[in-house]
Write a structure and sequence with these properties.
Elements: H1 9-21, H2 24-28, H3 32-49, E1 55-59, E2 63-67, E3 81-83, H4 86-94, H5 99-104, E4 109-111
Parallel strand pairs: 1-3
Antiparallel strand pairs: 1-2, 3-4
Length: 124
Amino acid sequence: MAIKRRIDPAEGARALGRWIEAEEAEAAALPRPVIALAVRYTLEELASRAEGNSVEVRVPPFGVTQCIAGPRHTRGTPPNVIELPAQLWLALASGKIGWDAALATGKVSASGLRADLSAELPLV
């Protein structure tokens, strides 16, 4: 079942492109709405490419999605959760950093047997 998109793909791609083109210091200083749009767009893109409900990816305070085929949870905290800051998520989604390098930063919380996005990233 295809996900219901809330972000216009063209607008989301523009926001992500703006983040990618910015230097590291500039990327952190981009307006909050641009970062939020880029995060939400990439979360939707991940959910559409890796459909499923077994892993929950959280990028507070901007968004959350479920992805990866497998057992579905229906209540409470899911058994497979990945949580990370927006700048690190965008670096992963854009390919500026790999999954193992992101884990090594200590800023990624990944719990559960399926909490691994290495096969799904980068998105661009």
